[in-house]
Design goal:
Number of strands: 8
Strand content: 15-25%
Order of helices and strands: HHHHEEHHHHEEEHEHEEHHH
Radius of gyration: 20 Å
Distance between the termini: 29 Å
Number of domains: 2
Strand order of the largest sheet: 1-2-3-4-5-6-8-7
């Protein structure tokens, strides 16, 4: 392991101790504790860190900033990064045939789901290429699942999925969808989102088109998914440029309390000094 911003191995400074401490703090009490640890580390070691090392630690710390890990919230819905406590809701959702037929027809998870979600929670989106959220309604009840997957760093692109196993208010669905966009374009700094919609899911196809995604084509018999056989998908895409030009979507976002969907320029030290 290398110390961020330094050519020195971790054995020659506190990096070997600090990094596990950061991960433990994240696991136990969230990113606020990570900020406190890094703030103390930088205060104690500022004099002996050169500029490259200092910036390296700040950049490393930004990976633990609140927007990567903590809930994406609005008035009508929230996205909470899924963890072990969400395993029961995941199982319940995927036990519903209608939900799996429309959302994800791949074989259900057979292993320790709580452990898998725990590992997923601790992983960083830029490393694992995937992030799972549990969608909460305005009363903080779990009502749906959302994710980004297939992340390509080189292409600044990922695939979005969003599904609800029961009846959910339209405002919740809209707010949750906007929160995914905000994370993708404002936090993860993506250039493009893609969405693959099963050929027989007309509702999702129409919603995705009305939500601002362009229909980019149809892939016949694209997936082999027993017992459904070969399944075709409609391909949709939303680029940063198209989102920037979509005034209607941005007005809806502001009205629903989601806020700005595109990049917010932040001072790299603000998150460390916050709280």
């Amino acid at each position: 392991m290398q110390v961020p911003g330094s050519s020195l191995p971790a054995e020659h400074d506190q990096g070997q101790v600090l990094v596990p401490a950061l991960e433990a703090a994240l696991r136990q009490t969230g990113s606020a504790s990570v900020r406190l640890l890094l703030r103390q580390f930088l205060a104690d070691n500022h004099a002996r860190l050169d500029q490259a090392q200092l910036l390296g630690w700040i950049q490393y710390g930004q990976r633990y900033a609140a927007q990567w890990w903590e809930p994406q919230a609005s008035r009508h819905a929230s996205l909470v990064k899924s963890g072990p406590s969400d395993a029961a809701f995941f199982r319940e959702a995927f036990e519903q045939n209608t939900f799996t037929t429309l959302y994800n027809r791949q074989k259900p998870w057979r292993g320790d789901l709580a452990r898998a979600l725990g590992n997923s929670y601790l992983s960083h989106f830029e490393d694992s290429g995937t992030i799972h959220w549990t969608v909460l309604d305005s009363r903080q009840r779990p009502v749906g699942l959302a994710s980004l997957s297939g992340y390509s760093r080189d292409n600044a692109r990922a695939e979005v999925s969003l599904g609800f196993p029961g009846e959910v208010a339209a405002s919740t669905i809209m707010a949750a969808s906007l929160l995914v966009l905000r994370f993708a374009f404002s936090v993860a700094k993506l250039h493009k989102l893609t969405s693959y919609v099963y050929e027989d899911n007309g509702h999702a196809r129409d919603f995705t088109k009305n939500f601002g995604f362009d229909h980019e084509g149809f892939l016949a018999d694209h997936y082999f998914l027993p017992p459904f056989g070969f399944v075709g998908v409609n391909v949709f895409g939303l680029t940063r440029k198209n989102l920037h030009q979509n005034e209607r979507l941005r007005r809806v976002s502001a009205r629903m309390g989601v806020g700005e969907l595109l990049d917010r320029q932040l001072d790299p030290m603000l998150w460390i000094n916050a709280g």
